[in-house]
Amino acid sequence: MRRLNVRDVVAGLVIVFLVGLLVGQKIGGQRAPVSAAAAQAAPPSAPSTVGELRQVSDSFAQIAAAVTPAVVNISSTRVMPGQAYFDPFREFAYGDGWTKAPDQTSQSLGSGVVISADGLVVTNNHNIEDAAEVRVSLADSREFVAEILGRDPLSDIAVLRIKGDKLPVAEWGDSESLRVGEWVIAVGNPFGFNQTVTAGIVSAKGRHDVGVSDFEEFIQTDAAINPGNSGGALIDINGKLVGINTAIFSKTGGYQGIGFAIPAKIARANAEQLLQHGRIVRGWIGLIARPLNSRQAAELQLPTTKGALVVNLYRGQPALKAGLQQFDVVTAVDGQIVESPRDLRLAVAAAKAGSSLELKLVRQGQTRTVKIAVADHPEQNGEPVPGI
């Protein structure tokens, strides 16, 4: 084996140093252009992003400024009659111990939207139901006593009128063209904080079985909606009224990201009917229906739980006259499949009084077809009779 001397070692170290220097320079030369390109690309992107955000922010601010004045505060005063009670001291003094407690008044707050220059206001029925007096306050501090022109508990829509000059107005939009994921703005008076603006997206469309009203076809949104927002405006990015905020889903009573609004298409049509007739004109056949569960489906010899189970019938009404019986299951109306009582309710309500409907039903495992005359949905004490 050859032994290395000092001269060989020094020569080797010099060679390694020179090779390392050359390699380092080559790598450094390749890295420099990349760093320069990155440095040149970075500055233009920041102003571009800020500018885009500014445009979005300005759009929201402009929409809010245009629509907020048309969203009003609604204060309803309700009178609760005092209850009679027995007072033994009065009995001892006057010989008549029965007396009556003073009437109690309560107030509730909600929102509404001015939809015409002559003072028409759309709101939720539950905001003004049983109210002795309804007051409407505008963003400019003007206050009016409102006249109730019509209300509908089944769809939770009501129309009021106020008399004032130069009233701000919200313009109806097209709720049908809304897409899931689109930006929307909610304006209302949550907890009494007037003209509050929140933003979110359309989370879903056509929500039903929420349990708020009999006729439900809600827009679901994550724009913050809280108590007091009811009756307020849901606005699209064009600044148009696409919904009337109505309810929230909450386990705490406050905002949890799920709010519901009546689509403009329904709210507007119902408001026009209330103005024309004082109520919503709907078809009626006179029955109560419930969804089917799996046990009931098995007992009635049905392969699925689809359909509307008839649980009661009104005497003297079209369904009973046509021969329907308790525990019949309606599976179709005029050829349209009925998957739930909601489908049956919508089909009957849309039919005009005097027309007829063909119902397909199952009774004790046998399929039948029945033709039923449609009547006008009756009222009792000013309220629609429950049922279909």
Task: Write a structural description.
The protein is an alpha+beta fold. It folds into 3 domains: about 70-160, Thrombin, subunit H (Beta Barrel), CATH 2.40.10; about 175-275, Beta Barrel (Thrombin, subunit H), CATH 2.40.10.10; about 285-385, Roll (Pdz3 Domain). The chain is about 30% helix and about 35% strand. A 7-stranded antiparallel sheet has the order 7-6-1-4-5-9-8. The protein has a 6-stranded antiparallel barrel with strand order 10-11-12-15-14-13. Strands 17, 18, 19, 20, 21 and 22 form a 6-stranded antiparallel sheet that branches. A hairpin with a 2-residue loop joins strand 19 (about 330-335) and strand 20. It is globular, with a radius of gyration of 34 Å. It starts with 5 loop residues before the first helix and ends with a strand. Residues about 1-40 have low confidence and may be disordered.
SSE topology sketch:
Elements: H1 6-67, E1 71-80, E2 84-86, H2 88-94, E3 98-100, E4 104-114, E5 120-123, H3 125-128, E6 133-137, E7 143-145, E8 147-152, E9 157-161, E10 183-188, E11 196-207, E12 218-221, E13 233-235, E14 241-248, E15 259-263, H4 264-277, E16 283-284, E17 287-290, H5 294-299, E18 308-313, H6 318-321, E19 329-333, E20 336-337, H7 341-350, E21 356-363, E22 366-373, E23 375-376, E24 379-380, E25 383-384
Antiparallel strand pairs: 1-4, 1-6, 2-3, 4-5, 5-9, 6-7, 8-9, 10-11, 10-13, 11-12, 12-15, 13-14, 14-15, 16-23, 17-18, 18-19, 19-20, 19-21, 21-22, 24-25
